[in-house]
Every structure is written in structure tokens, then in C-alpha cells.
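re: that complex we talked abt at group meeting.

here r the seqs, copy pasted straight from the sheet so there may be weird spacing, ignore it
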Amino acid sequence: MTVSSNIIEQVNALMKTGFEIPAEKLVPTATLVGDLGLDSLDAVDMLVYIEETLNVKVEGERLANVKTLQDVYVLAQESLSNESLQPQAPLHLEAQGSQ
Amino acid sequence: MNKVFVTGMGAFSSLGNDVGSMFAGLREGRTGVRAFPEWRQYNGLYSHLGAPAPAYDVMKIPRTVRRAMSRMSEMASLAAFEALAQAGLAPGAALNSPRTLIIMGSTSGSPFTLETYFRKLFEKHGPEGQLSTSFFKVMNHSVAANVAAAIEFNGALLSPASACSTSTQSLILGWELIKAGLYDRVIAGGADELHYMSAAIFDIVQAASRTYNDRPEIASRPFDKKRDGLVVSEGAGVLILESEKIMSARGATPLAEIRGGTYQCDGTHMTQSSAETMMTVMREGLTRSGLKPEEIDYVNAHATATTHGDGEEARAISGVFGSDMAVSSLKGHLGHSLAACGALEAIACVEMIKSSVLIPTRNLDEVAPECEGVRHLKVNTPARVRNILSNNFAFGGMNTCLLISEV
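got the structure back, here u go
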């Protein structure tokens, strides 16, 4: 899958600010655990940062297959693509208010 | 019974981020209180005053440890590093012993994190989007657990929480456990971070200063006729307590001796401790320390500048020690650092003993009639200081006092 340069820039930015990873380590082949020093707690937070940065919903189950930074780029790109195909969110607040 | 000594101290306060800076500020009569006009945005909050700690660098704490820390845990960890260094102890494996114990606490979990946590919870109608580390900042033993991680400690850990008497309880419990021979070394203290809700807790019950919002330097005025309530602050205080045996064996230098103390609940009122129950705790503290009232040279009062508490404490001190007892409160300088105040004041007391000077009450221009009956210190007072009694009282009727002696 082709990942836009904008996605790569935004993911790299959140990796730098969220996990204090130096820019020179942010190469597509870098492994999250071995090269970037992330662990399971960081993985959860990484998803939150991606969701907030790109305003998308990421399926947490997909984390199991994310090993490298390139995998993160793809996950972010696919989540954004899926989001654009989704119907408008239901009017959750109005439904709550009618109860 | 084992004697218990202080061999290291670390401080984070509104007057400076180490013991030397804090005590220099006290000697110079400075205050860390400043105005918080940005708090005017909060409906129902009328106290716009606080005493924050100066900016600090947390990069010496690894990210994977720091990510679970709020401001209070950061300050406590840095204070712990300072205390260990003064004691000649290195963080890491050498600290680990089944006979070493950490006792630290805070009033609650991080108020900053609680605010963001619940704001998002309500916005999202559920836990969606919560960071994995948020809970580690709001759990009740956050400070103790995070300090343990920062100093790479594997061992016994306790986390008392009794609001403004938390760190005094930590120190007294440490003294009790070392004295009883159950532990050789205790890393004791407490911490809290400044947040507008900390001010609000007191403002709601009309115990926070409101009329000095535009004159912060004179806002916190314990025992003074024109006092109108406390000013919240923040900080962390950590003391290394060691048995005489282990201290001597490693050739460490004692800074002071912890002679005793006690913590008692008055069980009558959540906010209004009475002089009678304060007298009870001071007398029991003296009994447990083996000291007589006439052997005490100075009482470090809790006195936060509330209209009720200061008068009751002055009456209680007078009742136990008589009218010639030298008394001061440090809240005019430091503000009220809540769970940190007992440890910070204990550190200041040790420094007073070492430097043979008693720090006066800042902003005490005219003693209120209800606060008379003791010898209020208004200027730095040179004195040989053999024994100090330090009081701390807290919401919930928690009364504590700690006895500290020269070595």
C-alpha cells in the first residue's frame, strides 16, 4: 500500500513527541520493540496518538501484526482510508438526550 | 530499642528545588506565593493564589519510568535522588534489601490527570482514547510506586494517605518500624502538585485566602490578626532514616535524630481539630520520645493561617509548653504543600538545628488575640536547638507530631 508523505510526517512527529525517539531512528524498517524501545503500554498510547492526530478509529486488534515503523504508517493510512468510507457517525448525543 | 537517624534529605518546594535553596529562601524570609489570575475562570473559586515549585528538568528519569509520573511523582523522585546522594547511597541494586522500606504518599492521585481523565471519559462516553499510563498517575500509591521505579528499588513499600499529615505519618511510621527492629532503613516522605482544585478544596470550606489575591506576598500569614486562610503550594520532601547500627556500619554521617512522634485521629470533626486533641497528640509524642516539655526548644507549628486552626494550635502549644515556648510556622514562606509539608518542615527543622537559627513566621505583623500565649518568632533567632517538636494536622481530624533532636 502506498503511504502518503503527510501520514509519514505525522506519524514520525507523534513518535518524536510521544516517545522521545530521535529523528534519525525513524526509518521504515525500524522495529518498534527492538530498535525504537517501545513496549506494550507504548503501543496502546501510540494508537491513541494516531487516532487523535488523524481523527480516525484504529482497530486495536490490528496491533498484533504491527512490527515495524512501516507497519505503523500502513496502519495509519488504512485507518484513514477506512474512515473516509464509513457512513456518518450516528447521532449518539441526541439519542442519549431523548432517553 | 534502636535509635533512628536522618542521613539524607531531599526537597522540592516553592522556594527552591533542593534543600539548600529552600533553606536559603527561609533564612532570607522569601515567599513562594504568587497570584494565579488564570484561576479566575473557574466558577465558584475565589482564592487565586498558589506557591508553585520552580521549573525543573526531569530528563534524568528515563522515559519508560517517567511516563507513569505526574508532577508530584517527578518532584518526589528528584527529591529522593537528592536525599540518597546526601546519605551516600546510590540508586539501584545496592539499595535492595528486605530490611529497607519506602513509605511515601500524597493527598490523592494526580489532580491534573484526574481532570483530563474524567473530562475525556465524559466526552467519549467511555474509556475510549485513555492513555495506558493515566491510571498510574491517579492511583493512590502513585508517588511511592514511581519513586521506587525511579531509584530502581525492589522491596517493601507502603503508601499512607492522610492529606496534610501524610508525610509526617510516613516519618513517624518509619521511626516506629526501625525502632522496633523490623527495618534498618526507611525512605520516607510525601508529595503533592499544585492544581486549582487543591485551592478549591479549602476555598469551598472558606479556609483559603481570598482577600489577598492582588497581594500574594502577604497572603499567607499564620497567627496574624489579618489572616484569612491558607495558600496552597506544592512540593516533595524525602528523608532517609537509618538505624544507628546500619548507619555506623557504613560510616554515614547523621544529620539529626528522629526521637519519636505519634499520629492520632480526633474522631469528632472533619475540618476543625480542637486544642484538646492537639494537646493530646503533642503529649503522647513527648511520652513516646522520652522527652519532657522543658527539653523542647522550639515548636514548628502546622499553622496554615486559617482562622480556626491557628488559634486552636496556639492554645494547644501554650497548654503543653507554657507561654515561653518559641513557635513559628513556615506556611508564610512555603505556602501549604499538603502531603509534602510534614517532610519539608522536618527538613527545615533539621537545617535549623544544624545552623543554630530558628526561622520566624513570615507576615506575622500583629499576633491575633486568639493566637497569643506562646513566644511567636518574628525574626531569625540564633539559638542552640537541641529538640524540636513539629506539628501537622489534616482534614479528617488527623493530628500528628514529630520529635527531632540534634546529634
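couple things i noticed - Confidence is low (pLDDT under 50) at residues 87-99 of chain A. The helical segments of chain A are 5-19, 40-54, 69-85, 92-97.
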